[in-house]
Write a structure and sequence with these properties.
Elements: E1 9-14, H1 18-23, H2 32-54, E2 62-66, H3 68-71, H4 76-82, E3 86-90, H5 107-114, E4 118-124, H6 131-150, E5 154-160, H7 165-170, H8 175-196, E6 203-207, H9 212-222, E7 231-235, H10 241-251, E8 257-262, H11 264-276, H12 281-303
Helix pairs in contact: 2-12, 8-9, 10-12, 11-12
Amino acid sequence: MGLGYDEKLFILAFDHRGSFVKRFGIEGDPTAEEIERLNDGKHLIFEGIEAALDRGAEPSVTGVLVDEQFGAPPGIPEQAKAKGIKLAMPVERSGQKEFDFEYGDEFGAHIERFDPDFSKVLVRYNPEGDVAMNERQAGRLARLADWLHERGRKFLFELLVPAEEAQLAAVDGNAERYDAEMRPDLMIRAIAELQDAGVEPDIWKIEGVDARAECERIAAQCRADGRDGIVCIVLGRGADDSKVDHWLREAAPVEEYVGFAIGRSIWGNPLEGFIGGSVSRENAAVKIAENYLRFIDVYAAAKAPAR
């Protein structure tokens, strides 16, 4: 099986763990009763995807990214596969600055147990950051990439490039300026370094950038040196609709981009309303479906060639 992916892909991402616990107002390790609430919250989000399917979402390009910790007890991985939608599951330990395996050397057994279409990692990697940490991360990620591809499995890589203090200082502490002026070049350097270290994703999950030309440059690096099948998708970063819409409109016309993986921007407000008691379960699921389908419409309209 060659590297890459050749279909559209619209993923609803809800593999959040540490931040998901906080969303429920839970401090410390959750109790058994609190875990049931967390599991139920995950299933509510999945009910949103079920509602989207009922409203015409195409199963073959619909995906869910869900964790084992809170998503597996209600059986979401099995339900997703039964409905013919794509299943992605995380491999990384949640909430860590440095990438490591959630289940240590047993990572392969957990992947094989659930048999996801994509194994996903979230990695914070700044090429001007801690050199030793970057090298450790790259070594673990290359190990994972080799393990996956030796078994014909697909690798989904979410790259975050958090600003170093000196980089923020160079733009007067302005995060928006960092995103616009520095992050695209740093992302390209990070991708190249990871590729040189033997890290070979099939799909790069890319932070949104504000200009189409930057999307094109990032995509070109993802496909550098004969990696012709590699594709990119846009992540949402929990941003508001107008910001995510802009990122989708800039990325969609670029050939190498095939969709998105968006999470909190879709389910955050409906889930919050449900938790707080102001939104019924049914209405929360419907709103999640509507948000998901609206982002697909935005992406599809931008992808379509101008008439």
